[in-house]
Amino acid sequence: MRRGFTLVEIMIVVAIIALLAAIAIPNLLRARITANDSAAQATLRTISTALETYAAANNGLYPTAESQLTGATPPYLNQAYNGNTVQGYVYTVATATSAYTATATVVNKGVTGSKASYQITTGGVLTHTD
Fold first, then answer.
1. Distance between CA 94 and CA 90 in Å, rounded?
2. pTM for the predicted model, two decimal places
3. Phi and psi for 20 in degrees, rounded to 5?
4. Which residue of 36, 81, 99, 118 lies most exposed, with the fewest beta carbons within 10 A?
C-alpha cells in the first residue's frame, strides 16, 4: 500500500500558509515603518546633542560644517549624516554659528516611513510634517 499526501491535503496546507502570510506580512511592514520613524527621531536627537555639546565647549557657537563634529578628537558624531540616507530617511544638517536645523526627509512615504519629514532645531525642538 502506498503512503503519501493527496493533492487535496497539499492544497489545504498551501492555503493555510498563504493565509498566515497574508496576515503576517502587513504587520511586518508596519513594524518596519515604525522602526524607521523611531530611528529618524533618535538620529536627529543624536545630531542635536552633538551640536549642543559642541556649542557648550566652544563658547556657545555651533559648528559651521558637519566635519567639525566628525573630525574632532573624540568625535561629537561617529558618522556624517548630511546628505546621506539612513533607514529610509535622507538627512540634511544646516548650521550657522548661532543656530542649526537638522531634517530627516522620508524617501518613500508609506513604504519607508509614515511622516514626510522630521525636523529638529536649535535647543532640541523636534517637530514633524505629515
1. 13
2. 0.80
3. -65, -40
4. 99
